What we know:
By secondary structure, chain A is mainly α. In chain A, strand 2 and strand 3 form a beta hairpin. In chain A, helix 2 crosses helix 5 and helix 2 runs parallel beside helix 9. By secondary structure, chain B is mainly alpha-helical. Chain B has a 3-stranded antiparallel beta sheet, with no helix packed on it. At the A-B interface, helix 9 and helix 11 of A face helix 2 of B.
Amino acid sequence: MNELIKSENGYMDLESPVTDELSPYSASYPVKLLSNSIKLKLAQAENIVGNVYRELEKTTPLVAQVSEATKKGYRYVVDATESTLEAIESGRIKLTTEKSGKLYAQFREANGHYGSKLPIKKDVFAKGIDPIQMANALQMKALQDQVQQVADQIAVIDLSVREVIQGQQNDRIGLYYSGLTLFLEARNINSSEMKKILITQSLRALSEARFQLGLTMQSDIKYLADGKYKLEKGKNVELIDSRISNINQSFAFIHQATMLRAGIYCNEGELSAMSTVLNEYSYFIENTVAKNASFLAQCDITDNGTEKGVWKSRAKLKLDVSELSKQLNASDKTIYLGVSKENE
Amino acid sequence: MKRNKGCGNESCEAHKKKTTYKVSEIFCSKCGSPLVYICKDCYTQLPDDTEKYCVRCLGNHEDKKNNAKKVAGQVGKGALVVGGLLITYGKKVLSFAKDLKG
């Protein structure tokens, strides 16, 4: 099943190369944006690890090996006085990123507790590797498998919504296209300030589209579940079909808006925000789709109610982003380092 | 109300041919998968045995009933109209016929 999905929806296969530009108005564009952004972040993570290693080999030939540092495959240097470093014979150093974004190192003392925080020196590396960027990149790399799992699940839904998208119009869908257009314009703007403003507006439009469509969808599901279509004699099937069509349309654009928001955040390097968006989507699937999947399958003429049917396969999307979110949102990003005797 | 069971395995021949089974049967005779309750009309899988039809097919049956009632109502009205016309004009028709004969 996964291999089939990958071949049918190659955009979410993170091992495939970055795809060329599609038309932004193509139904595949949002998931392609998300996929490419993730692939680029993973590639950057790979490069950063490589760069750190190369820099350290050049500047600090004498490095005390600590088993964790060896496993992680990188080394780093703390801005401490030589006497502090000399005083440390061996042991572990914890690298902490605070919410403010500053990076500190703490040494483990004899009593097993970590001592005072020491600021990390950014300009140790000749090529200007940002330590926060490094911490994020390494984390991204470590989470690669989880990210691929999320991508695989998204691919299942994405295939089923594409056909619904074509030619649909209403004001909420207009909000989605407004968000998409603003993002595309932002990409072509030179002024960084204006770019930020446009991206913010784009995210807002997409968020509004997503939640308005979500409410519409819930309202339509309630209409069917309450049997209100029975009030009009002789038109039950017509009313059921009409509402199901609306529900499918709403779901398709909710999916698109979510993927686009996640893609924009990932593109901007905001991985925590991306995981928040995916988490929210997973919650929506669980509470709106999964709860009503059996019922909706009975109402939908295109669904036969089996596990591979439209609604039950959508219900299975439990984007297991909880672990991903926890790690990305943790204020402490711990990286174990080796001790270097040369800090300049 | 009599329920139907069917094979929930989409790749099974019994599912493709929409083969129905008795409620007492548990496994598909073709593929061995557990049987599920299905809609009598369209073979859509049902969550339990409370209904014989899926929501849509049930709606379809209701529509047919209601439409049949409407038609019956129309026919009834039509019969009344014809009957009324006969009563109204019936005597004249009879006397005209008598004149013609006479």
